[in-house]
Amino acid sequence: MRRERSGRLRGSLILILLVALVFVALAAFRAGPAPEISIESGLPGIGRRTPIRIVVSEPQRGLTALRVEFTQGERVTLLASESYLPIEPWQFWGERTRKDEFALEVGSDTLEQIQEGPATIRVIADRAPSWLRYPEPIVGELVTEVRLRPPTMQALSSFTYVTQGGCEAVVYTVGDSSVKDGVQAGDWWFPGYPLPGADDRRRFALFAWPYDLEDRNGVRLQATDDLGNQASVSFIDKFTRRPPRTDSIRLSDGFMERVVPAIMAQTPELRDQGSPLQNYLAINGELRKRNNATLVELAAQSVPQFFWNRRFLQMRNAKVMSDFADQRTYLYQGREVDRQDHLGFDLASTRAAEIQAANNGVVMLARYFGIYGNAVVIDHGYGLMSLYGHLSSISVDERQEIQRGDVLGRSGATGLAGGDHLHFTMLLHGLPVDPREWWDGHWIQDRLVLKLGDSLPFEK
Predict the structure, then answer these.
(1) 417 lies in a domain?
(2) Which among 141, 215, 296, 322 is least surrounded, fewest beta carbons within 10 Å?
(3) CA dist 37 to 43, 56, 63, 133, 293, Å?
(4) What is the dihedral of CA 436, 440, 444, 447, to 10 degrees?
């Protein structure tokens, strides 16, 4: 019995000794493994603001400390740093940071004294130490290039006279580093295209001065390279402000009971707001915005080609019922309930009058279209489109090629229409613009053809 007790005691002591030896060995020698480092750049170099994504992981003992540096020559700039608490060498469980990510923006907008030339993004990740081991940190690097010079750009055309709500053209050259060029007008972008028949560097843009833009410095020619470096050139010779007219629309229960159910039946995504007035306001506001967004999407599909070579037709024998960009106040039972801009012309002649295509093009849309009711949209090339709304019937199909004067359908009172008429507007890259310019052959000759030359073979 005594021998058995002595043997068990000896075994326990040996086991305790082995555990102690393992504990001491782990504490003395179990340093953390090398962290894995990933550095990804969102651009092919460093420009104004280059997004950098850094991921560091070490799942065993966890991260210890990180430093992210930007190095150029002898100058070292600390971009980010972080410290963590790893688990102890003898632990195999417990809270630790196994992975961390950094999203940084590096460039001339975020760093002082940055210069063109080679540069390095460096990540230094410490390893978790033990009692006797203090391993060297792991270093990951991304070698890149700093480029800060924007593309060269020069406006070639002159006598650029533009009216608020109207259009114009500009011819210019850009350097080889440009990946995006055109005209920025407030929040609207009008892309540039190669000038047909000219050398590779000569380009042009059809652009508009937005009807609601008052800033005389709000329209500029711009070119951007693949790193976001941007050239911006002023090129407008004369700007004419055209204040919008104001108008009041009185809403009646009868009108809303006629138009609202029909529009909602054709627009199932609209939710019933509980009353004819609230449904009308949702249509006049929310649905109007959706329709405008669709027009911008259609413009992105426009073919870079001039389909037309003659002035645009106005509806025959039509009376003008409204002006372009009227600021409308909507009144119900004597109080104001809404405000919207009317971005087109309302034209009326006889009931169910034939509606002709204003010019050559391709039908982009021919269906019921929200506030416009039965509508047709024609692409005339280079982002220029015409819209025909409130039709009683449509006689063309989408993707159909159209010639100037072809019958598109007949006028009506579908959508948000108070009576039989045509809502007509021109759009440039989705922005409604004053149609009167496009109806005027002299304006096209003076403002466009004199700049574009044989690229636009216009017939007066």
Answers:
(1) yes
(2) 215
(3) 19, 5, 11, 22, 42
(4) -70
For the chain, what percentages of helix, strand and coil (3-state, to nearest 5) are there?
20, 40, 40
**459 located within any domain:** no
Do both 220 and 295 map to the same domain? Answer: no
Q: Are 124 and 82 in contact (CB under 8 A)?
A: no
Claim to verify: residue 272 and residue 401 sit in the same structural domain = yes
- Structural domain for 191, as ranges: 153-240
The verdict on 400 and 290 lying in the same domain is yes
| 201 C-beta neighbours (distance < 10 Å), count | 15
What are the tens digits of pLDDT across the range 330-370? 999 999 999 999 999 999 999 999 999 999 999 999 999 99
Task: Answer for the pair 378, 325: CB distance below 8 angstroms, yes or no.
Answer: no
Which residues have C-beta within 8 Å of that of residue 255, sequence separation ≥ 6?
A: 418
Bridge partners (DSSP) of residue 273 are none
Same domain, yes or no, for 412 and 310? yes
Token representation of residue 289? 């915005």
CB atoms within 10 A of CB 300: 10
* N- to C-terminal Cα separation, the chain: 124
Q: What is the pLDDT of residues 168-181, one digit of tens each?
A: 999 999 999 999 99
- The encoded tokens of residue 81 equal 């740093």
| Structural domains of the chain, count | 3
Residue 126: inside a domain, yes or no?
yes
Q: What CATH number corresponds to the domain at position 213? A: 2.60.40
Cα–Cα distances in angstroms (integers) from residue 100 to residues 35, 78, 279, in the given order: 11, 17, 49
